[in-house]
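Anyone able to model this chain together with zinc ion?
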Amino acid sequence: MKRILAGLIVLALLVGGGLYAVRGKLAVKLVERRVAEGMTSDLASRLPDGLHVLICGAGGPFPDADRGAPCTAVIAGKRLFIVDTGEGAGRTLGRLGVGGDSVVLLTHFHSDHIDGLGNIALMRWGGSNLTTPLSLYGAPGVERIAAGFNEAYAFDSSYRTAHHGAEVMPPSGAGITPRPIVIAAGADSVVVLEEDGVKITAFRVDHGPVEPALGYRFDYKGRSVVISGDTSVSPVVAAQSRGVDLLVHEALSPELVKVLQDGAIRAGRPKRAKIMADIPNYHTSPLEAARIAQSSGAKALLLTHIVPPLPLRALEGPFLGKARDAYDGPLWIARDGDLLSMPAGGSQIDRRRLR
Ligand SMILES: [Zn+2]
Ligand SMILES: [Zn+2]
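re: yes, here you go
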C-alpha cells in the first residue's frame, strides 16, 4: 500500500512539474508578444484621430490600491500631453502603452501632483531619440520645480549617458525646461499653446492657499475637454466648461472625510483630525461638481482626484451622494486606465478601461 502511495506522489509531482514548465513557456510566449506590440506601436498611434483622455492617476494624496496619484493624459491627434505627474504616473503610462514625446502641464505644485515628474522626464528621454528636454508648463514658480528636479536627477542623468553612451542617452535630452504660464492681472485665462490643431487654455481656479492654481481646457478638431485641477467651487471652471464634451473634475466627499476625521479623534490623533477638517474647504464635492456640469452644459462628467480612497465598490454610492440627481448627463468615477475617446467629427464619447 505504501509503495502505491509513494508511486502516486511521484507521478503527481512529475505531472505537476510538467504543467509548471508548460505554463512557464506559455507565459514567456505571451511576454514576447506583448513586448513586440509595445516596441512597434504606442497607444496614440492605434487610436483614431480625435481627442482622448487617459486616466493615469485617479487618486489624491492618500495611499490607494486602485487609484494612483493625480495624472491625466490627453492625446490630441498624435500629440501627448500629461496634466500632473503624481507618484507612479510614468510607470502607469508605460504599463498602458503610452510613450514617446510628451509635454507636461502642472495644475499646481502640491507634492502629490509633482512627485512622479522625475520619472516622466527620464522615461521620455530613455524611450525616444529626443535631444531636447521635457517642456514643463505651470504657474510662475515652475522654474524652481524644474531646477529642483534637474538637480536631483543630475547624478542619474550622468550615469545613464556614461553607461549607454551619448548616442543612446544624449545629455541634451535629459531634464526639464520650465515654461511659466502668466495670466494677466484682471484676466481669468490665457492660451498656452496652439499647435498641430491643438489649443490649450490655462485658467485660474480656487485652491487657496495654493496661488495660483490652474485648470486646463483642450480643444482639438471640434472636440473639447476641461480638466479642473484641484479647486473649490469655481465660476471660472463653469465658464470654461460651457458646452464642453467632457468635464474632468476633482471630487472630495466631505461626508467620507468626516468619517476619517472622527476616526482620528477617537484614536487620539489630533494632528490628523485637523488635516481632515481642513481639506474639504479647498476641494469640490461630487454634488457640487455635478451642479457645475449641469449649469455649464458639459456633455459628460468624469470625477477624478477621488478623496478619500474607495476600497470597496459599495462606497461609490455614499461617495456620490445626490450627485446623479443633479446632473442629466453621464457621470463616472475615474479609475486608473480609463480611456475616454472623442473621435474628430463625431459627437460621442467612447469609454473603456485599459489594463
Ligand atoms: Zn491634489
Ligand atoms: Zn492640491
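Residues 50 and 98 are 16 Å apart (CA to CA).
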